[in-house]
């Protein structure tokens, strides 16, 4: 599958950017270049835009000096007005973590926690904003792992008018897909006993690998590059998946969407769920 760049403004609530903040930018850039083939274009501030097949796929930046922060991937959703979104987040019992601010010539961003505590970014682009999706080295999917599925669904449905579809049984396996006028955009998983007690709500982001490489070889490559596995490669209805940790501690899922395996009805609620916070 080839990388697909955006050709028109993304509807509100659509994934539009991935960003890695880290205390070890050189090590992370080398790791992802070796793993995903990313090439980087720096700006004057040192912010790096990663490209796959010539299309922007993610941003990487170094945390400013100060107390050390964990290397973290942040997903951004497209909005028309971040100031209005910040107000609505607060009205819906979320919390603004990073106040709306302008990135000159590019747009405005804001980061907030939903009412269950997971952080999510919001991006108001000033111009057409290309974002690689659907191919090797490109964004493939994201799902929210949370302790309160109903509350998370209600928050994002109110914020973006998503429709929800339950794909589990809603009890032993509670996973909803959020759609907008048809297309599936994001997933939401209620964390169960398979997660360590106290695991905080968080987003899991998925980046594609080519069928020629495959997830198994990509996972091996991640280890060779100094990373480690949080979950060995496994089959799913969405593709073959592995969860990796980069050299600085950032957690990301790799997926080969050409390898889809349906889950038998009797296995619903028993499939392993990967916990990036379980060391």
TrEMBL record:
Domain VOC positions: 14-125
Top-level taxon: Bacteria
Transmembrane segments: none
Cross-referenced InterPro entries: Anthracycline_SecMetBiosynth, Glyas_Bleomycin-R_OHBP_Dase, Glyas_Fos-R_dOase_dom, VOC_core
Protein name in UniProt: VOC domain-containing protein
